[in-house]
């Protein structure tokens, strides 16, 4: 049986890390696509040359031709521009919308059966645009953000509690931006919810609030340190977890930017929600109950995403 084919659209910082992780985990053969000549070819060759040392069986190739992604089972999109210090994700809207148009058309022409994971920012609006331009079923086009935001939250919590990151679960909803909603009630250490841990004296409400805010600012913290680009190791690991869930039909419950029409009181919007990912793509959006204060935070986040999508509708990507 042939190995699955994974197409990475964008061979920059995240794209290269995705290729390395996909190869090490033997998820399939990898095609790296980029408009920059030599970059995808160089990264593919470099990673392939690590194969004998790492001991993986996966073919890697780099290309500047969309025809080479033909028949891909998974496409992960990082094409575009990352932010620099002082920029918000939303500042990338116009330029990355234009990129989503060409990427969407490339996927539509050459890999219409793929499960497509968008990472390009501003995430929720870009995944909406990618679905529009590719015309693929909404359940096969998703955005990666929640897994990363939850991973950041889990990491900070594990430091606060001095416990293994493996035992910390976290739940983050809403758009991938300043209004994201880390849900403390649904976040736990080995099943013990965070509010209970505050009562047990493991931390204080003030410290927990500070960790929630650090999670919201997690991307900006790294941009501020790197100065030349944004995070790429943890974003790549997060998207690989989603790709693996699809390729191996794992039915994982992962938060991601999915098309929601009916659940959580929403009708027709891409936003971060809990989903089940399996061989069918987004197989289910999990319709959780929110308390009044949680619902208010989620509504605010949904409104921010709606505003960005409306802004996209007003931009002609040919002129962006
Ligand atoms: P970077 O290293 O600049 O790579 C982007 C690549 O896209 C470059 O190699 C470009 O040549 C390529 N590219 C530009 N235009 C096109 C095009 N039209 N077709 C194909 N390739 C093109 O950036 P990066 O890998 O660090 O980040 C990529 C994107 O991910 C940015 O938009 C970031 O803001 C975003 N990002 C999202 C998250 C989320 O959690 C959602 C986290 C971190 C970064």
From TrEMBL:
Its EC number is 1.1.1.37. The active site is at 176 (proton acceptor). This is Malate dehydrogenase. The keyword NAD applies. NAD(+) binds at residues 10-15, 34, 96, 119-121. Keywords: NAD, Oxidoreductase, Tricarboxylic acid cycle. It catalyses: (S)-malate + NAD(+) = oxaloacetate + NADH + H(+). Belongs to the LDH/MDH superfamily. MDH type 3 family. It comes from the Bacteria. It holds the Pfam family Ldh_1_C.
């Amino acid at each position: 049986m042939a190995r699955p084919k994974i197409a990475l659209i964008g061979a920059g910082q995240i794209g290269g890390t995705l290729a390395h992780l996909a190869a090490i985990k033997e998820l399939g053969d990898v095609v790296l696509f980029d408009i920059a000549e030599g970059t995808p070819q160089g990264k593919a060759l470099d990673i392939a040359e690590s194969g004998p040392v790492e001991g993986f069986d996966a073919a890697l190739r780099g290309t500047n031709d969309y025809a080479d992604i033909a028949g891909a089972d998974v496409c992960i999109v990082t094409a575009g521009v990352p932010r620099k210090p002082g920029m918000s994700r939303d500042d990338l809207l116009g330029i990355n919308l234009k990129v989503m148009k060409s990427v969407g058309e490339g996927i539509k022409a050459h890999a219409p059966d793929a499960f497509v994971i968008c990472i390009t920012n501003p995430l929720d609006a870009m995944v909406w645009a990618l679905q529009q331009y590719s015309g693929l079923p909404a359940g096969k086009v998703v955005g990666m953000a929640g897994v990363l935001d939850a991973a950041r939250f889990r990491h900070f919590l594990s430091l606060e509690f001095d416990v293994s990151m493996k035992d910390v679960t976290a739940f983050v909803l809403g758009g991938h931006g300043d209004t994201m909603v880390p849900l403390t009630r649904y976040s736990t250490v080995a099943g013990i919810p965070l509010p209970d841990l505050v009562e047990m004296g493991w931390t204080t409400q003030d410290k927990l609030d500070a960790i929630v805010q650090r999670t919201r600012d997690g991307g900006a913290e790294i941009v501020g340190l790197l100065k030349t680009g944004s995070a790429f190791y943890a974003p790549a690991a997060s998207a690989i977890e989603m790709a693996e869930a699809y390729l191996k039909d794992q039915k994982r419950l992962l938060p991601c930017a999915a098309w929601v029409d009916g659940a959580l009181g929403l009708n027709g919007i891409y936003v971060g929600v809990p989903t089940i990912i399996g061989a069918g793509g987004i197989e289910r959006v999990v319709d959780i109950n929110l308390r009044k204060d949680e619902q208010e935070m989620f509504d605010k986040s949904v409104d921010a995403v709606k505003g960005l999508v409306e802004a996209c509708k007003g931009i002609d990507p040919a002129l962006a």
